[in-house]
Amino acid sequence: MRQPSLALAAVFLFVCGSASAQAESPIKRTIITRGDVSVPGREAVVAQVEIAPGALAGRHTHPGDEISYFLGGEGELLIDGQPPRRMKAGEAFVIPAGVVHAARNPGTEPARLVGVYIVEKGQPLASPAK
């Protein structure tokens, strides 16, 4: 009788641990809206993006262009092949499709952005870079 209980407890701890790890992700994208654009097979995705203080959003790409506007906090944009770019509220950037990049929050408050992505339909919004 105890074996099933132990197995159930192990599954419960695994699921709770996974949910907890997901909740503590250094980057959080909350999709506000998405809709078709004039380019066949593409859609616009508008998201609120938050990077935790001191966190690094690892190297990744998007299946389309990213256009982002900084609302608050500080950020450092790390685009492969370019020097780091320090960002603050009121500044914006554009990253073409497939370009490998990362972001770091060197500050003590969350970095907050609005991101607009013009991406291929049916693809993940972001994928880890190799």
TrEMBL record:
<protein>
    <submittedName>
        <fullName>Cupin</fullName>
    </submittedName>
</protein>
<keyword id="KW-0732">Signal</keyword>
<dbReference type="InterPro" id="IPR011051">
    <property type="entry name" value="RmlC_Cupin_sf"/>
</dbReference>
<feature type="domain" description="Cupin type-2">
    <location>
        <begin position="49"/>
        <end position="116"/>
    </location>
</feature>
<dbReference type="Pfam" id="PF07883">
    <property type="entry name" value="Cupin_2"/>
</dbReference>
<dbReference type="InterPro" id="IPR014710">
    <property type="entry name" value="RmlC-like_jellyroll"/>
</dbReference>
<dbReference type="InterPro" id="IPR013096">
    <property type="entry name" value="Cupin_2"/>
</dbReference>
<feature type="signal peptide">
    <location>
        <begin position="1"/>
        <end position="23"/>
    </location>
</feature>
